[in-house]
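User: Could you go from structure to sequence for me? I need the amino acid at each position, not a summary. Structure tokens:
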């Protein structure tokens, strides 16, 4: 089974890509909506949340977990991989969402200026700058923290004029810098993709992070047959939330584009 973990509903953009491209696997999605957003919390707090999520998903039979949250990937992934897993779950694999996007940026040879929008935790960690520079050190990278977007998305305010106004103000800095590519460094942000593309204009390439992460995961699966994650004739999709399951179900169905039979409320 493949586990997908996020602070709320944002990681559903990652799961949506998996279900579109590779629907024949068992998935379990865990949204920690009791503690959303992660982006304004400390590294220690985020790490404690991720540890609890890992314990839960492992107990449900996951062999591979995708941390579909940029804040968690930036603040906790490396420590989880290097310290927590070897001691407690040596057979478990955990992947983040940052490295595949950095690799994709490096392949855009004509791009010289890159913009990044994300939570405060992601931007302050400088993780995207560091990861991208591993592959290409000739890029100019401009980052902008956009902390209001996650709460607005979690409230279902995607189409509200207030959200569009705030988004336009956030993106003004990157438009002034004339960035040629934009990274949505939060898995919530693809829900605003059409508005972001419209504001940034045709001269700016907005990366399809959903597709990039999906392709990267299944390339990883192909290279690691020892995980023994098999396709199923009748795959199971499970959804869990740590707070209001009614709100999660409503938003989840809207974001995924199809019905969710049940959302289980869990305590981490």
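Assistant: Here is the amino acid at each position, in order:
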């Amino acid at each position: 089974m493949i586990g997908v973990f996020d602070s709320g509903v944002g990681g559903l953009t990652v799961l949506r890509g998996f279900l579109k491209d590779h629907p024949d696997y068992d998935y379990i999605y865990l949204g920690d909506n009791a503690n959303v957003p992660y982006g304004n919390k400390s590294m220690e707090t985020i790490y404690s949340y991720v540890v609890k999520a890992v314990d839960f998903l492992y107990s449900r039979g996951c062999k591979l977990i995708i941390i579909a949250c940029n804040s968690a990937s930036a603040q906790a992934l490396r420590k989880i991989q290097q310290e927590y897993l070897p001691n407690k779950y040596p057979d478990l694999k955990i992947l983040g969402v940052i490295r595949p996007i950095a690799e994709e940026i490096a392949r855009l040879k004509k791009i010289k200026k890159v913009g990044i929008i994300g939570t405060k935790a992601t931007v302050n960690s400088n993780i995207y700058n560091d990861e991208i520079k591993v592959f290409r050190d000739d890029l100019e990278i401009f980052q902008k923290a956009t902390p209001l977007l996650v709460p607005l998305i979690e409230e279902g305010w995607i189409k509200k004029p207030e959200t569009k106004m705030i988004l336009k103000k956030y993106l003004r800095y990157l438009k002034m810098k004339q960035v040629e590519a934009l990274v949505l460094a939060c898995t919530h942000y693809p829900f605003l993709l059409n508005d972001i593309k419209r504001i940034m204009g045709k001269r700016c390439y907005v990366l399809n992070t959903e597709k990039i992460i999906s392709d990267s995961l299944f390339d990883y699966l192909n290279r690691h047959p020892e995980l023994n994650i098999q396709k199923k004739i009748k795959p199971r999709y499970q959804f869990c939330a740590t707070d209001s399951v009614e709100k999660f179900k409503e938003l989840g169905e809207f974001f995924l584009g199809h019905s969710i039979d049940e959302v289980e409320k869990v305590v981490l």
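One structural detail worth keeping in mind: The radius of gyration is 18 Å.
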